[in-house]
Write a structure and sequence with these properties.
The protein contains eight helices and five strands, in the order H-H-H-H-H-E-E-E-H-E-E-H-H. It is flat, with a radius of gyration of 32 Å. The relative contact order is 0.05.
């Protein structure tokens, strides 16, 4: 018997487990042959119950609104309780990495710069720069962000914090903040880098 030919012929239309059992090979072997020859399950086969896929929601076995669990109001059997009580969470349990409110955490962003966050409550953290600014000046206006004037993200002295609009921040982070001569130099430098790296120039 040519096992490869049998797998190629039967794989699109039959259960992988059935093919493996009848040919006396492992399921992995069937998958490997199918992958090597780029054979896929037939779309019509996948719509059948034999494929093992859920085609329609199994409404008959879904819980209905108002469903009452079978163990509601019942105590765990004592023998089972003694087996599992050692691994049960105790009242007031906190995970090992839990931190108290007021904790300052430094997190690196994609650019590699560290940003400080302060914990306000469980699962609620805020940028420390915003926290310090609002503690001194009140709520930050909508559409504004808080920047560190000296560029040091770890210097949270209130004299080093300033609220600016997102548009102002965009201008701070583009080459347009530089004189025309510097802008041209930056553009030429980037073109040279792209050419060196083999990047196609569009301008």
């Amino acid at each position: 018997m040519n096992i490869k030919a049998e797998v190629i012929k039967r794989y699109p239309f039959e259960s992988t487990a059935v093919i493996a059992k009848e040919l006396g090979i492992t399921i992995s072997k069937v998958y490997n042959i199918a992958w090597a020859y780029k054979i896929h399950k037939d779309i019509n086969y996948l719509k059948t119950a034999a494929s093992g896929r859920f085609i329609e929601p199994n409404v008959a076995n879904q819980y209905k609104p108002g469903h009452t669990p079978h163990n509601k109001g019942k105590q765990m059997p004592e023998d089972i309780y003694h087996k599992v009580r050692g691994t049960m969470f105790k009242p007031g349990h906190r995970p090992m990495n839990w931190k108290p409110n007021g904790t300052i955490s430094y997190r690196p962003e994609k650019c590699g710069r560290l940003y400080a966050y302060i914990k306000l409550s469980d699962s609620k953290w805020q940028l420390y720069s915003r926290y310090v600014y609002e503690a001194n000046y009140g709520v930050i206006p909508r559409g504004h962000i808080v920047i560190h004037i000296d560029g040091n993200n770890t210097n949270h002295d209130i004299s080093n914090l300033k609220a600016i609009t997102m548009k102002e921040n965009m201008l701070r982070n583009t080459i347009h903040r530089y004189p025309e001569e510097i802008q041209q130099l930056i553009k030429l430098t980037n073109k040279l880098k792209n050419k060196t790296n083999g990047t196609k120039q569009t301008k």
